[in-house]
From TrEMBL:
Provenance organism: Cyclobacterium qasimii
Family classification: Belongs to the SusD family.
Domain SusD-like N-terminal: 33-227
Protein name per the record: Membrane protein
GO cellular component term of the entry, any: cell outer membrane
Keywords carried by this UniProt record: Cell outer membrane, Membrane, Signal
Subcellular location: Cell outer membrane
Domain RagB/SusD per the UniProt entry, residue ranges: 267-568
InterPro entries for the chain: SusD-like_N (IPR033985), SusD_RagB_dom (IPR012944), TPR-like_helical_dom_sf (IPR011990)
Pfam families: SusD-like_3, SusD_RagB
Length: 568
């Protein structure tokens, strides 16, 4: 099993994780009974005596990137409440996908608590450690504090996107100040972008230690947040600055970016770091099949499968290369890099999900033997008939599928290029740099989809970008936000969440290609055997409510200055 190469940072995490709870976060209140200083550990009255303690505190802020609200990394979990994903467990995330969330939903409430906990760590650093700038190398101080401020900005960007208006707290609060009203989303985003633009000048373009925030990371987040908030000029400018720095290049190996090898990818800007014995995650358990010892409890729909184009660049309802009886042939290679489809190999087995497939093939060295197929009939295995492949390194098949230290990518150049292309399209600046950005992604050696030719209209390019984001960034945590900011969630979310055709003796395939709309969303109204498709659940989406999450009830009760979002 490979391990993280960020050994220096991980050594600090090992040590500091043990110390930080005792060191950092005594109360900000000034009650007399709290004024006595502890004799066995530092307190807020004595902490930040030196550079080492500052380094420890910043490492403590990084630790808040480890969060698993439904058993997987937080930044990936959103997509399982989008039209690209479903959580099989009867969780509060599943309720979010159905539009049944309320102010007591554990999934949505958990993000509020976790993000503000991380913000509090950074506020402690910025409030209590400023004197150290005079006592250590100022450049190092600015870098370390800049890394922490990035994490605060990162969390605020997500809070604003999920809840809208939220309290903007950037310093320690006294008890009297704890009744804090919501700031406007615009004010929060103004703060986020201002912070990022300020700190990026104190950060190196590439870090000496993997996993640390860099100028490249800050620029990538600026391009993302500005795009999400229709600040097209700022998004395009940040993306262009990063592109022009030439510090990152498109990786020819799309699939490899999401394995252990991604640590050394030319495209990866930042990955969250894991190390066995310190912190691991359970992505293999969530994604792998039952035969591969996983629980396969995160499921893609038929809808996502059918959205991928054929290798001629045409949707499946227009391409002469599409055969409904061999539906995975001649398709955009990213389909098979992102998803596990019937008939493909997963670890040591051929993945088959049709109910008639009671036997399948197992690879034993150079031999293939027929074995009973758990996936065909197991109550919790089939469902949609598909699995996710991305983020799983099958070449380093874990002995414990519930614990892997494979690092996970949170920023890469592919997203930045798409941010740039979309921002330029929305500005109606349809120059050749837009085509270059799109074609750099589509033309990577392992993908080689046809180039987008010059001469498209703004509407045509907008639709191309939206399809490209679904295919290039599939199950990386962006789809949930994309369909909301484009205001198409009310169109793509309601209705049945479908799996494959899967009745005994029916052959297992759609009789015809579904109709594909301009942004790649299939409709099955024309399919003669659509009633044979598995329906996992029926979803709903209220456009007057569901574009924002509810403010947690407990927060409303403890902070009476807060107000609830409409509809909750």
């Amino acid at each position: 099993m490979l391990i993280s190469k960020d050994w220096e940072l991980m050594k600090k995490i090992i040590i500091y994780t043990l110390l930080i709870p005792a060191l950092l976060f005594s109360s900000a209140c000034n009650e007399e009974f709290l004024e006595r200083l502890p004799l066995d550990s530092p307190s807020s009255e004595t902490y930040f005596a030196n550079e080492t303690e500052l380094d420890m505190a910043v490492t403590g802020a990084y630790n808040k990137l480890w969060y698993y609200p439904v058993g997987i990394a937080w930044f990936l979990s959103f997509d399982f409440a989008s039209d690209d994903g479903w959580d099989r467990n009867g969780s509060d995330l599943q309720a979010l996908g159905r539009g049944e969330q309320n102010a007591d939903n554990g999934y949505t409430n958990g993000f509020w608590s976790h993000f503000y906990s991380g913000i509090n760590r950074v506020n402690f650093i910025t409030s209590e450690g400023s004197h150290l700038r005079q006592e250590m190398d100022p450049a190092k101080y600015d870098r370390l504090v800049g890394e922490a401020r990035f994490i605060r900005a990162y969390f605020y960007a997500y809070l604003a996107e999920l809840y809208g208006d939220v309290p903007l707290v950037i310093s320690n609060l006294t008890l009297e100040e704890s009744q804090t009203p919501r700031s406007s989303k615009e004010a929060v985003i103004d703060f986020v972008l201002a912070e990022l633009n300020e700190i990026k000048e104190h950060l190196p373009m590439n870090a000496a230690e993997k996993g640390r925030v860099t100028k490249g990371v800050a620029l990538a987040l600026i391009s993302r947040v500005a795009l999400w908030n229709e600040r097209w000029e700022e998004s395009a400018a940040a993306a262009k600055e990063l592109m022009d720095a030439d510090a990152y290049q498109i990786d020819p190996d799309y699939e490899g970016m999401f394995t252990f090898a991604g640590d050394n990818s030319s495209e990866v800007i930042m990955r969250i770091q894991y190390l066995r014995g310190v912190n691991t995650h359970s992505m293999p358990r969530n994604f792998l099949s039952r035969m591969a010892l996983g629980h396969s409890n995160k499921k893609p729909p038929q809808d996502m499968v059918d959205s991928y184009e054929c290798i001629d660049g045409l949707p499946i309802d227009e391409s002469p290369l599409f055969d409904p009886q061999s539906p995975f042939e001649n398709r955009d290679p990213r389909l098979n890099y992102t998803l596990v489809v019937p008939g493909s190999r997963l670890v040591n087995w051929i993945y088959e999900t049709h109910r008639d497939s009671t036997m399948t093939w197992e690879f034993r060295g150079d031999e293939m033997i027929r074995v009973p197929n758990i996936e065909a009939g197991h109550a919790y295995a089939s469902f949609t008939g598909y699995l996710y492949r991305k983020h799983i390194d099958v070449a380093n098949y874990p002995t414990d599928v519930g614990s892997t230290d494979q690092n996970l990518t949170i920023f890469r150049l592919g997203e930045v290029l798409l941010n740039y292309a979309e921002a330029k399209v929305e500005l109606n600046q349809l120059d050749e740099t837009v085509y270059e950005a799109l074609n750099a992604i589509r033309g990577r050696a392992s993908v080689q989809m046809p180039a987008i030719e010059m001469g498209k209209t703004q509407t045509e390019l907008r639709n191309i970008v939206r399809k490209e984001r679904r295919h290039e960034l599939g199950i990386e945590g962006f789809r949930y936000f994309d369909i909301r900011r484009w205001k198409v969630a009310e169109e793509v979310m309601p209705g049945p969440y479908r799996g494959r055709v899967n009745r005994y003796g029916d052959g297992g395939w759609l009789a015809e290609a579904p109709m594909i709309d301009e942004i790649g969303t299939p409709s099955y109204n024309n399919i003669s055997n659509a009633d044979e498709m598995v329906v996992v659940e029926t979803r709903a989406f209220d456009p007057n409510r569901d574009y924002l999450w509810p403010i947690p009830r407990i927060e409303l009760e403890t902070n009476t200055a807060l107000t609830q979002n409409p509809g909750y």
